[in-house]
Amino acid sequence: MFGESFDQLMVESYLASSSLGGGLTALGKCRYHDRGSFYSSFFQLSIGLERLFKIIFIINHMVENDLDKPDYKTLKKFSHNISDIHKHCAAYGSKFLPNFNWELNWQQNLIITLLSEFAEASRYYNMDKMVKGKKETNDPLPQWNEVINSCFRKHISEKKKQKFETELNVWAEKNHAFNYTWNKGLDGHLLSQIDEYILNWKVIHVTPYITFEIVSMLEPYYHLMIELKNAVDEIEHFKGIRDPLVPYIHEIFVFFLVPKHLALRRKIWSHRY
Fold this sequence. Notes:
Elements: H1 4-28, H2 35-64, H3 72-76, H4 82-96, H5 106-120, H6 125-130, H7 140-155, H8 158-175, E1 180-184, E2 190-192, H9 193-239, H10 260-263
Antiparallel strand pairs: 1-2
Helix pairs in contact: 1-2, 2-4, 2-5, 2-9, 5-7, 7-9
């Protein structure tokens, strides 16, 4: 019979997995003219990452402290700082699985930084701008614009860039698209018709690569969860505990293993592969 610890970790893992899957799905539906669509994705991704890393933190604490869980103050010190707790979890990974790469690349670091700031403060950026006396926070959309441009430079081949430029020139000539619109880009600046076309193309074609960056960043944590579960099992066996305290939570995060060619095409993300 499974106890309270097992059930709580199971529920929390499903919550984290559902939030991450929902965030990745929402990310694929983002469109440049609908700024709310980006916020929806940020909300779910930040919640999912925070809860995933806190689950890993708790289980690692159990491994290091004879199955005792951390107290409220220990976990509370992280608040919503995803960047900070991620560094702790990456350190656990380096300990258990030193052959894996636990360093974030440039694009992944931009994503983690944005989502950490979003979780801590900037999720209320628009609301804060409407009221007086509120401390200024960063607008997450210009930060996301930087993520898009960075992934554009990294992932879009020169051949595809040249093809896009040709298509853009043909479209602009055909539609006499040489004026400014009333619309603003993610960086807050007014868009010309050509700028609007470029931004729309980038959001649609670069977002799958951003999704892949997130999934590839999380893939090592699937294996870390297995190692932590095995470590807990060993302690339970030594102490004669028959009812497991930790479920096989890695099975709820199987989508971390999706390879690049599938990640680029996937539209709906869930805990299934």
